[in-house]
Amino acid sequence: MLAAMPPDPTPAPTPAPGAPRVRERGDACPGALRLHSADDGHLARLRLPAGLLTSRQVEVLADAAEALGDGRISVTSRGNAELRGLAGGCGAELAALLAEAGLLPSPTHERVRNIVASPASGLDGLGAADVQLWARELDERLCAAPWAAALSGRFLFVLDDGRGDVTGLGGDVTLVAADPGTALLHLGGRTVRVAAADAPRAALAAARAFLTAARGAGTGAWRVRELPEGSGVDVRAALTTAGIAAEPVREAVRKPVEEAAVRKPVEEAAVREDIRKPVQEAVRESAPPHGAPPAPGPLGPAAFHVLAPLGRLTAAQLRALLPADEVRLTPWRGAVVVGAGPDRAPALDAAGLITRPGSPWAGVSACTGRPGCAKSLADVRADAVPGRPGLPVHYSGCERRCGHPHGDWVDVLAVPGGGYLVDGAPVPRTDLAPAVTTARTAPRTAPRTTR
Ligand code: SF4
User: Fold this and answer.
1) Cβ atoms 333, 311 nearer than 8 A
2) Count of Cβ atoms closer than 10 Å to residue 255 Cβ
3) What is the tens place of the pLDDT at every residue in 78-129?
4) Residues 96 and 199 in one domain
5) Which domain holds residue 202?
6) Is the dihedral of CA 348, 353, 355, 358 positive or negative?
7) How far, in Å, from the CA of 263 to the mean position of ligand 1?
8) Model pLDDT for residues 236-295, shown as the tens digit of each residue
9) Is residue 264 part of a domain?
10) Do 135 and 208 sit in the same domain of this protein?
11) Which among 8, 375, 379 is the best mutation to test ligand 1's pocket, defined by most ligand atoms within 8 Å of the CB?
12) pTM of the complete model beyond 0.90
């Protein structure tokens, strides 16, 4: 059904420490068929599993942005695409355009196709498997499973090819390709090893197990981390039911590992010498790898990674990605252009895209801010400043900090009266450039990852 959504209601109060969050309604995430009303018009969020777009779909999105929206798309922190500035009555026309281009394979599942996969997988010789192929299979299976339509629009599958570039994105189900021919499936602090050929099926079975646990808990959890203590997901049972062989990762030493990790770092833990080695191995195996995102620039001989300035691509910039074998929008608000060699750099540069790690706009992001968001205290996109590359920096119009990066980053927050807080320190708007440069480049005593 095509309908405009009311603005987000006030978020539920944060539960007391230790108390489970109780959700009394379904999630209100926008979709391609469920438009969200914003101050700059309506907004549609189009889920793109693994960020994948064919050339034809790139053209359709550019045309839709120009004909129905504000002429741009925003690339989200999950590699999805948002159209903004839509007229309230354009839902049917937009849906028809997207469906005709193959971008709405299952209207009932359009908001649950939340799949992030290592964008460079299969292109640069790194990684233990091509998880882009896993993403396609998982998406097909997800759309073919009627029960999966009950997942929330926020539930996230993360597929990492072993390089660790997407494991930090907070997946509910995280699959990591491992040698030889296996995958580690992580969910709610548990890890099992499955055959690589079973990986997409296993991810889906794990999601189903989450739904079962969520229903059993009765708290309306949208995500695995919202499940109350003690209502763990029985992944192994779910995999067995699905006929998938799974091996627990060092289950025998998990308890001492966890206990040791709570007491002090495992390296120093007072565990007996005869279990020290298996403990360390278990920690290594059960912790997903963490790696940096690829830098903007060539990715192997036939792919190019660009970033979108402040996470938005004009219709002209979208078209500048073509010709391409395919385009993969990334969770770093850019695109991997498959089929583009290093010789495409001048043209991509000329289109205003970020093609080098040293670009002054690399690593700079901002929320929607004014005038699109009624909650914003400032036009953060206009106030954002380029600068010397360093830590990622994110400008927010209010304390919700929508779309902030994962890991360590510099927080620039608008405050009443026209100024900002840069990592908590008050800074007048006119002095943002030097303050942000200092925050991005000065050594940190400790990463700030808790916002
Ligand atoms: S962080 Fe930005 S986009 Fe999000 S609610 Fe606040 S002002 Fe709006």
Assistant:
1) yes
2) 9
3) 999 999 999 989 999 999 999 999 999 999 999 999 999 999 999 998 999 9
4) no
5) 125-249
6) positive
7) 39
8) 999 999 999 998 886 544 555 555 555 545 444 444 555 556 556 665 666 788 888 999
9) no
10) yes
11) 375
12) no
